[in-house]
Amino acid sequence: MATLGPYDYWAIEYAYKEIPPEQEKAELARIAARGSEAALAYATDEDASFAIDPEANQADLGGDPLEFARRRFALVQEMWERWQNAAAQAGRELHRATGASSNAACSRCPARRPTSRSTSAA
What's the predicted TM-score (pTM) here? Predict the structure, then answer.
């Protein structure tokens, strides 16, 4: 996280707020009572690593795991299409450079390279 979050501000308030000694116990109790607020939920690495808290996740990237998965799937699809388009473009450039009109005529294309099975004597 690039900035302080609600938990950070809450912890700083509890630890560093200037409170007159006669009000300290009541004021700290009031601040601590906010601990059940959803925005202040916090788990340590140990909570996540040892499965102490099933809702703690070190790699949590949002409050909606399905939406995160949808975004990642869309990203994978986009990257796959880019890779396929780049490979197709590279193939076209190779064919132009060799003067081949198709994969079948291009001796440098993987589809035309002999495999160990196709070169062995029958």
Answer: 0.41
Contact 73, 80 (CB under 8 A): no
pLDDT tens figures, 10-22: 999 999 999 999 9
Instruction: Give residue for tokens 């196709």.
Output: 118
The 3-state DSSP class for residue 105 equals: helix
Residue 96 to residue 112: CA distance in whole angstroms: 16
Q: What ranges do the domains of the chain cover?
A: 62-117
Rounded Cα distance, 51 and 54, in Å: 6
CA dist 33 → 47, 82, 105 (Å): 22, 52, 77
Of 95, 93, 96, residue with least CA distance to 112: 95
Per-residue CA distances from 103 to 30, 32, 50, 64 (Å): 75, 71, 54, 46
